[in-house]
Amino acid sequence: MSDEITKILRRIVDGDPQANGELTPLVYSQLREIANRLLRGEDVRRFDATEMVHEAYLRLMGDTEIQWRDRTHFFATAARIIRRILVDEARKRRTLKRGGEAERVELDVVGVTDSNHNVELLALDQALEKLAELSPRQATLVELRFFGGLTQAEAAESLGVSRRTVAGDWAMARAWLQRQLDDKK
User: How far apart are CA 103 and CA 101, in angstroms?
Assistant: First the structure.
C-alpha cells in the first residue's frame, strides 16, 4: 500500500484530478489512528478524532500545492499539521474566560514519560520549540514519531539518516524532553 500511496501522490503533483479521491480512503484510516492515539486521554476527548482528521486532510490537500515525494513525506507533513491543530486548540481553550483549560496529553506513546503521567500539550510544544533551537533534527523526529505516528524506520527515511542515528536521536530527545517537562511541574 505504501507504493500505491506514493504513486497516487505523484499523480496529484502531476495534476491528476481523480488522484485526490483515490488517496483519501488509503490514508484516512491511518490519519484516524494517529488522531485516536493522540486523543485517547480523557482530558483531550473534547476534540473529536474525525474533526481533527478532516481538518488535517483539508490543510494537507488544500490550496497549497505541496510537491509530494512519497508516503513518508505525506505523513511527516501530516504530523506537523496535526501538531499545529492540537496546539492551536489548546491555546484557544487556555484563553477562554475564567482561566481557560490546559490541554493534557499522554506521552507514554513516545516513551517520554511513564504511563501514569500526563503533560500539558502547550508545555510539550514549548519544549519542542526549545529543542528545535538546539537540534532541529531531534525536534522533527519527535514530531514525526509522536504527532505523525511514524516508526523509527519511516522517520529515518523522512529525515534522510540511518536507523542507528534515529535511535540515538530518539533516546537523546526523549531524555531532554523529560527533563524539560519535569522542570515545568
Answer: 6
Task: Please give the full DSSP string across 17-45, using - where no structure is assigned.
Answer: TTHHHHHHHHHHHHHHHHHHHHT-SGGGT
- Which residue has 509530494 as its cell numbers? 68
Q: What is the pLDDT of residues 75-91, one digit of tens each?
A: 889 988 988 888 888 77
Residue 123: per-residue pLDDT: 84
106 SS3 class:
strand
Burial (0-12, 13-18, 19+ Cβ within 10 Å), 80:
middle
Ranges in the chain, pLDDT < 70: 1, 41-47, 63-64, 94-119, 184-185
Neighbours of 113 (CB within 10 A): 18
Cell 519544549, residue located:
127
